[in-house]
Design goal:
11 strands; 4-stranded antiparallel sheet; 7-stranded mixed sheet; 55% strand; mainly beta
Amino acid sequence: QVQLVESGGGLVQAGGSLRLSCAASGRTFSTNRMGWFRQGPGKEREFVARIYWRGGLTNYADSVKGRFTISRDNAKNTVYLQMNSLKPEDTAVYYCAAAAPPNGEYLYWGQGTQVTVSS
């Protein structure tokens, strides 16, 4: 099993920044990549960004490209999401998740952290 704990959410004005953290524990060696997802009020959960533990390859949703940066600290088993130029539409509960081979499905999820961007 893998346990994920997010932190760093909060209330920020539009144009501001926040950094989310996701600390992983347990059988983290069984996972190969981490992702951030979000679910806004009345919306479906959507992909935000992902990163591979090895190599650090990243991918982003078009809506956050150029504003958000995902990174990882392998020694700390922690993944970060730096969010800049925040917009009210970024308001959501943000979840981190861990995926494992062979099919790459996200098997483990954190409890989520609320991000609210005021206009």
